[in-house]
């Protein structure tokens, strides 16, 4: 069975790596944070001391990192992990990052004769845990052929959307829609309170009406409505507000680069940026606190 190097063992990376270990892969994992390494050690992952050690002799190298800067730091250093892989290896960057960094990763791999995909994900921690993620994939068919067995362990839907960086472009569009629906939900719950509706009644109505959406069931901003939601757990992050703010910034930059005006996306970004400025480590669903604060005096 192939060796998988895995870099980034946070909310998403840890369950993704754990599923690969469960499926019989030898998984060598690294994270810069000691607690993340310790948590992952119990999941059948062999913890190693650096990204280079994770990549040493690996057939597949997977990164699940917060931002483009982290991906550059982890992958693009001179003599870094890309130079340690087994012949015929494939690199899969599943982080949500900017298209420019993603294309640089493709170029660096190409220069070394390594196959590569950008393959950001959707599905949240639940999707990562259940192995049901959606992958949005940019890169060559030959890279996908090498990556497919591991991707199919971690996810249930693989969408090839184009060449280098195309997966990131698709992810930016997706996150814009997700961010807008999350902020709209937060506003709807605050508005419902003022109109005398209970949160439970609004949840039940939305769930079976045209306002139903993925964010309602996976990032419900009000507690007591969805078992296991971050709002039920003091908004401890499953997906940090800082990461959604980053994604909405990536969407804004991508839209600007092709002269598209995002009226709804811009409003959602403003609200999420306000939350991230003070409480970026909280779950993104805590954006309801920002909506409440803005409306406190009205
Ligand atoms: P996270 O912050 O929980 O985990 C990221 C991990 O990367 C952290 O443990 C951090 O210590 C580690 N890290 C940072 N720099 C590193 C480096 N140079 N070398 C090794 N490790 C490093 O973030 P997450 O929620 O797991 O998200 C990871 C990526 O997936 C982000 O790009 C995010 O936008 C995306 N994403 C997250 C979700 C979600 O629901 N959490 C869903 C879809 C996509």
Describe the structure in your own words.
It is a single chain. The protein is an alpha/beta fold. The protein folds into 2 domains: 160 residues, NAD(P)-binding Rossmann-like Domain (Rossmann fold); 126 residues, N-(1-d-carboxylethyl)-l-norvaline Dehydrogenase, domain 2 (Orthogonal Bundle). It is built from 13 helices and 9 strands. It is globular and about 65 Å long. The protein starts with a strand and ends with a helix. 50% of the residues are buried. The mean pLDDT is 97. Nicotinamide-adenine-dinucleotide binds next to helix 4, strand 7, helix 6 and helix 11.
Fold blueprint:
Elements: E1 3-7, H1 13-22, E2 26-30, H2 34-41, E3 46-47, H3 51-55, E4 60-63, H4 68-75, E5 90-93, H5 99-111, E6 115-118, E7 121-122, H6 124-130, E8 133-139, H7 141-154, E9 155-162, H8 166-194, H9 199-207, H10 214-218, H11 241-257, H12 263-279, H13 287-294
Helix pairs in contact: 1-6, 8-11, 8-12, 8-13, 11-12, 12-13
The structure holds nicotinamide-adenine-dinucleotide.
Nicotinamide-adenine-dinucleotide binds at residues 7-13, 30-33, 36, 51, 64-66, 70, 73-74, 95-96, 121-122, 124-125, 238-239, 243, 247.
Strand content of the residues, in percent?
5-15%
Count of helical segments? 13
Largest sheet: 9 strands, mixed
Q: Do you know the CATH architecture of the largest domain?
A: 3-Layer(aba) Sandwich
**CATH fold descriptor of the largest domain:** Rossmann fold
Say how many strands there are.
9
Which molecules other than protein and nucleic acid are bound?
nicotinamide-adenine-dinucleotide
**Please, how many domains?**
2
Mean pLDDT: 97
Give the uncertain stretches in residue-range form. none
Q: Please identify the oligomeric state.
A: single chain
Shape: globular
Order of helices and strands: EHEHEHEHEHEEHEHEHHHHHH
* Rg for CA atoms: 20 Å
Give me the secondary-structure category.
Answer: alpha/beta
Ends: how far apart? 62 Å
Reading off the top of the CATH hierarchy, the class of the largest domain is best stated as: Alpha Beta
């Amino acid at each position: 069975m192939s060796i998988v190097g895995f870099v980034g063992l946070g909310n998403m990376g840890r369950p993704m790596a754990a599923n690969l270990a469960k499926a019989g892969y030898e998984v060598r994992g690294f994270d810069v944070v000691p607690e993340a390494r310790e948590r992952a050690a119990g999941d059948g992952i062999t913890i190693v001391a650096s990204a280079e050690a994770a990549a040493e002799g690996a057939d597949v190298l997977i990164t699940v990192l917060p931002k483009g800067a982290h991906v550059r730091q982890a992958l693009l250093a001179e003599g870094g992990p890309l130079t340690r892989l087994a012949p015929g290896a494939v690199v899969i960057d599943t982080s949500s990052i900017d298209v420019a960094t993603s294309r640089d990763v493709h170029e660096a791999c190409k220069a070394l004769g390594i196959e590569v995909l950008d393959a950001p994900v959707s599905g949240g921690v639940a999707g990562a845990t259940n192995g049901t993620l959606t992958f949005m994939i940019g890169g060559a068919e030959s890279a996908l052929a090498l990556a497919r067995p591991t991707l199919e362990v971690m996810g249930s839907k693989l969408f090839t959307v184009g060449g280098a960086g195309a997966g990131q472009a698709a992810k930016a569009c997706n996150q814009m829609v997700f961010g807008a629906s999350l902020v709209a939900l937060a506003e709807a719950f605050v508005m419902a309170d003022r109109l005398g509706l209970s949160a439970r009644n609004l949840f039940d109505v939305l769930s079976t009406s045209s306002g139903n959406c993925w964010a309602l069931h996976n990032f419900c901003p009000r507690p007591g409505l969805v078992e296991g939601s971050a709002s039920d757990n003091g908004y401890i992050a499953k997906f940090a507000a800082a990461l959604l703010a980053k994604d909405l910034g990536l969407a804004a930059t991508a839209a600007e680069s092709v002269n598209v005006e995002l009226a709804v996306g811009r409003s959602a970004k403003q609200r999420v940026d306000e939350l991230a400025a003070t409480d970026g480590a909280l779950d993104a669903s805590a954006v309801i606190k920002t909506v409440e604060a803005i409306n406190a005096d009205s």
